[in-house]
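To whoever is covering the structure queue this week,

Two jobs came back overnight. Logging them here so there's a record in the thread.

Job A:
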Amino acid sequence: MDLATYSEYAQHGPCFICRLVDGDPAYAHEIVYEDEQHLAFLDKWPVLPGKLLVVPKRHLEHVVTDLTEQEYLAIMRTVRLVALAAEDVLAGERTYLFSLGSQSGNSHLHWHIARLPHGVPYERQQFDALAFENGVLAYTEAERTDLAERLRRAVMARVGENN
């Protein structure tokens, strides 16, 4: 996937998150957590190892105004749960949490969870580490499935701790 293809897809394609929620096999992702309101899944085009997305199942677009305070706190609890599981599975020195998208493309509200690996030089960290233009990581199907399973187990272990 190149940047031009990605941009075209993000701006003019169907909402991939709504298609995923609806169960469209063409938009399947490795889901690592699901509850009544949210999904968490592996990014198909990760810029960092094990990059994840957390989304509301309902098509919402504004990170602040489309959510009640309870809904905002609920999605942030889900983001934290999945981020902690990512920290259990993936080595790194920092976990980045951010929400991107716009009315122009990828408008469905989503949070990114990305672990910054140890040893990345400072000038390649932060925004540079997240730049799609720098390329995406390629996983084999077996590697992606294994990573998703390890993340699912870590999430469920953390859910079990809270019950």
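Job B:
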Amino acid sequence: MPVTHDIIMVFCTTPSRAVAEQIAQTLVAKKLAACVNIVAGVESVYAWEGKIEQQQEFLLLAKTTAANYERLEATILSLHPYDTPEIIASPIQHGLTDYLTWVAATTGNNN
């Protein structure tokens, strides 16, 4: 089985490109994520406070280590305008070993 270094992918939606860019830049600058992709054009439909809501959002895909998750989450919460932002993480079970090693090395100073 390939080495994963406990790499996780953190998903977060934001209401605007400006918010997405601010969060992405901050996470990478603080070495809490090695890379954050910003995906535009996400249409979200969700239940909130008894209503069905629908809006355009930007999706962040942050690659980091499990050890960095708590600090990454706290940083997102400090910058995010939503009361309850979507912040979820999934383990990376397989991937290019060189890429996973790079993610771990790039974010490893926070452990």
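Note for Job B: Residues 7-110 form a domain with the Alpha-Beta Plaits fold (CATH 3.30.70.120).

Please reply-all if you pick these up so we don't duplicate work.
Q.
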